[in-house]
């Protein structure tokens, strides 16, 4: 594999700058609609007279907007890093193995910092909740006995057994 040509780098840089500009426009529009307090954004003087679902919908909308802004912010960081690699001469070189990244990959993902072999795979644990590191697997054989003996007593049969002693619908027994 060969290094990227100047014309290829210029094409990819143009792509990155266009995407950066588009993301910048998104943030300009959002800044114009500066996020206000929840009561300000709904136009209500109080949230007490609204149905709880109305406030839940408004909260959901705000959180979705925040998630979109976070995703665009992360994408903007990736673009800035790629432009920085162009500036310092390391663009197109895999950050993990040091081999050249094929032009076709960079054409598809101009901000790619790694080659395909070193790219994070779907399902990689990166970004997973911390709790998963301390979770334990269920005990060995959990549920196996129930599958082998489907006719035996389990929690689903508990009501049948308790009801045999009577319920509020049956007359009291002595």
Automatic annotation (TrEMBL):
Residues 38-49, 164-174 have a biased composition (Polar residues). GO terms for molecular function: zinc ion binding. Residues 145-160 have a biased composition (Basic and acidic residues). The keyword Metal-binding applies. Keywords: Metal-binding, Zinc, Zinc-finger. It comes from the Bacteria. InterPro entries: DnaK_N (IPR037187), YteA (IPR014240), Znf_DskA_TraR (IPR000962). Residues 27-54, 114-174 are annotated as: Disordered. Residues 89-117 form the Zinc finger DksA/TraR C4-type domain. A zinc finger (dksA C4-type) spans 94-118. PROSITE patterns: ZF_DKSA_2 (PS51128). PANTHER family: GENERAL STRESS PROTEIN 16O, RNA POLYMERASE-BINDING TRANSCRIPTION FACTOR DKSA-RELATED. This is TraR/DksA family transcriptional regulator. It comes from Cohnella lupini. The lineage of its organism: Bacteria, Bacillati, Bacillota, Bacilli, Bacillales.
């Amino acid at each position: 594999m060969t290094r990227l040509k100047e014309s290829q780098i210029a094409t990819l840089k143009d792509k990155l700058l266009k995407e950066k500009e588009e993301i910048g426009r998104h943030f300009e529009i959002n800044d114009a609609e500066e996020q206000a307090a929840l009561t300000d954004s709904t136009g209500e003087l109080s949230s007490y007279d609204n149905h709880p679902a109305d406030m839940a919908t408004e909260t959901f909308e705000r959180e979705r907007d925040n998630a979109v802004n976070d995703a665009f912010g992360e994408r903007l960081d990736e673009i800035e890093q790629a432009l920085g690699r162009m500036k310092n001469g390391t663009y197109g070189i895999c950050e993990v193995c040091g081999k050249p990244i094929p032009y076709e990959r960079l054409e598809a993902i101009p901000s790619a910092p790694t080659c395909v072999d070193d790219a994070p795979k779907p399902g990689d644990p990166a970004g997973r909740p911390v709790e998963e590191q301390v979770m334990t697997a269920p005990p060995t054989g959990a549920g196996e006995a129930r599958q082998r003996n489907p006719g035996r007593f389990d929690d689903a049969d508990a009501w049948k057994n308790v009801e045999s002693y009577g319920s509020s619908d049956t007359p009291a027994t002595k």
